[in-house]
Fold this sequence. Notes:
By secondary structure, the protein is an alpha+beta fold.
Amino acid sequence: NKNSLNTAFGGSLVALATLAGYGVVWELMKDEKKSDKPVWHIVVKESRAAYRRPVIGDLRAICERPAQAAIAEFKEALARYGKAKLKLRASIIEDGNVAVDVQAAFVVSR
């Protein structure tokens, strides 16, 4: 999706980074969806993007798993309250360079 400058549209880049983050949360939750567990809902509570450079070619959206301590805290809150927030950082990479940084908070609830 290109803008009037023939570069990738900023909203599309943020959407891709958000989807990468959603994938990380979904992966963390898939083990929690056993038959005796409730169905979880994942939503984006807030996000913030920093555009570093225009994107004109092939890109990758990357979101790394958070540290084990953050995952443990998230899962403890989820078990205790039935709802928890996890902050993630995702990036859009083009030619090995970061083009967009996205920070997003995902909320998981029953």
